[in-house]
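Fold this sequence, please.
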Amino acid sequence: MDPNDPVVASYDVFLTDSQIARYVFQFPDRDREPEIGGPYNESTAQKPTVLRLKPKTGLVEIDVPINTSPGYYDTSKGMKYGEALNDSRVLKGGGAFGLAGGFNPNGPGRVKMEGGSADTMEDVRGSKMQTILRTQTLAGRIKDPHEGDPMYMLGAFRGKNLFISPVSAVVQLRPQLHHIDAFDETSKTRVLRGKKDLEDDGGREAEARPVDVKIKTSETSEGAVPANVKLLREIQDERWEQYEWIDAETEDSWATYETYMIHNNPEELPTLEAAIDEESYLDAMSAPRIDPAHPEMTGWAMKQNRKKHQESQ
């Protein structure tokens, strides 16, 4: 043991139940400093209002409140985008924008209702009710695990015991621009409605023009395109599962932590036994070893030769 690097602590390691799903949410676009960001929780007045999940396709969305205080919020733009969300025919029909809608604003009406993202307020003249944008949607996707991917674990300390729990997936959630998509949609709808009114009033008919359609194929992407189309269709067809967001500093949250992150009776747990010996583990983790005296022997053959030599001594 290196005297300059002594062992300062020793812990007994325990594995917790792996039959439940544990997800780690990351917010790459969120600053850690509380003054300009901080966690999405009750202390920052930005506790998520709802969590939505499509378990088969792995889509995750959360809605977080927007700070509408003077100096932080542009009320005129908030009304503009809030009205767009409120008037969107896509959202009224049960559709969604972005990946949640399969990138198809005219998709079937069983993906999601974007309710709760805007609130109404009376304008300065008091003549009508206007809608103001008050929440923002963050979204990400749970990726299917592949062989060779790292396995992440969560650790919890209690005294001299360390409890580790497997992580089902790490999900990065980023802000979505559904309000801009809704504004573009409503703007196009108004333009089309104006053209139709002009034609009904005897305006000039639209000039007919030939359309030249070209289809390009790529041998390298033949398999990827159908797979992507299939995935978008599955995302579009799958219904959302909706969950309540429990703040981290509540009694319910701590009770869940005690149940699934800590084992209250570690002495009852069975002792784990290694399935392979130390040398086999090193062989599995290391590059193939070559004996300079016998370069033709690698891996298993080299190990057997070394074992035979040790037995003869």
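The CA atoms of residues 271 and 290 lie 36 Å apart. The first strand starts at residue 12 and ends at 15.
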